[in-house]
Amino acid sequence: MSGNEFVSVACGLVVLASIAGLIFTFDAETWITKDLKRGDLYALIDVASGLRPDGLTRDQARRLAARGMVRRYGAGAYRATLKGRVALFIRQTVRQAVQS
Description:
Distance between the termini: 47 Å
Order of helices and strands: HHHHEEH
Strand order of the largest sheet: 1-2
Largest sheet: 2 strands, antiparallel
Structural class: mainly alpha
Radius of gyration: 19 Å
Shape: elongated
Number of helices: 5
Helix content: 55-70%
């Protein structure tokens, strides 16, 4: 193995170790609920499902928009962003894993 190949393999191993460290220490529930209050995620579910695009209170809309989970459109209506949908998916996955 030449010097360049060794350096490439070593760098690859360092990157893999870093990714593994992030995966094992990532706290999904904390990331999802940071700076949110009770009821915000339920309101996000309503917005994401299309049941109530205008169903956010002013404070909920402010908190969720600050986290990048909703975006305003039209007159008082909101849409869930990709980040908001990912947060709901992760939350659902974590809850199913805990219940199993």
